[in-house]
Structures are given as C-alpha cells and as structure tokens.
Specification:
Length: about 150
C-alpha cells in the first residue's frame, strides 16, 4: 500500500463516499416500532441519500422453493438519527428516526401511516420492497459525518 498522508487518506475516503452515495441515491421510508399502552405503534420517516441493493433469491427445499429475497441498504449519516435506546426514550419522536432490528424499511417515499385500519400487512400488499430489518452495522470512517449504516433486511 502506498504511503499516504492524512490529508490524502481523507480525500480518498471522501471520494469513495461520494461514489457510494452521490450517484444514483434513493429514498427509503422507515417504520420505527415502539409501544404505547401495550400496543405496537409505528412512526414513519423518509430518509434520503440511500443506496439500495436488491438480492432476489429462493432456497430449494424438499417441500418446495422458499423465497429468500433481501436487500442491503447503505444510509449516509444523518443529523436526525438517534441510537435505538435514545430514540425509544424520546417522548416526542417526530423528526427523529432510528434503525432497529424488527423495524420495516420500504424502497421509496411512502406516505401511508400504520394504524389499526392500515397494518404492516396492508403495507406489504400495497408496495413492493417492504422488508423487515434483520441487522444494522455502523460503519465509522473517522471524521464526524463520514460514517454510514449498512442495513440488511428481508
């Protein structure tokens, strides 16, 4: 590996992040789950500067094929993000969002609110690419604002 100065390393990282996020970025809608009076409630947030990569697959089983569709979603750092415990502790969650295993992520901007009359099942029936978050990896790159999250969902 060539000997790079710190400023050249930072410049290289900046170029790599620009390549990852500034070309063909998309929007996603995240439905964060929390409990109010023993009832699941979902807050909807639209997040931009996202890279969505689909992986459509099927597992062959003796009983037949089972869909194993999934996506890997890279989300650039955002000032409105809070870590899950801090987000759950908020009394007013409006304007803030988090990434938690079990939450839902939808490709694109979605305006539907989850209620007793419009459920997650209805959301899945209405839109393609409604996936449940299965893991969240934080990718820190040293400087504030240069990190991102890599979210797996299926």
């Amino acid at each position: 590996m060539p000997n790079l100065t710190n400023s050249r390393i930072v410049a290289q990282i900046d170029r790599e992040i620009d390549e990852l996020f500034l070309s063909d970025t998309a929007y996603v809608t995240i439905y964060n789950r929390y409990t109010v009076s023993r009832s699941d409630t979902y807050q909807r947030s639209v997040v931009e500067q996202v890279k969505w990569t689909d992986a459509r697959a099927a597992n062959r089983m003796a009983a037949g094929d089972i869909a194993n569709d999934k996506a890997v979603v890279s989300i650039l750092s955002d000032a409105n993000y809070l870590a899950p415990i801090a987000w759950q502790a908020l009394v007013t969650k409006t304007g803030k969002w988090t990434l938690q295993v079990g939450d839902y992520i939808v490709y694109g901007t979605v305006t539907d609110t989850i209620t007793a009359l419009f459920t997650i099942s209805d959301l899945k029936a209405k839109y393609d690419n409604v996936l449940r978050i299965t893991s969240v990896d934080t990718k820190e790159i040293g400087s504030v604002g240069l990190g991102y999250w890599e979210v797996s969902a299926k």
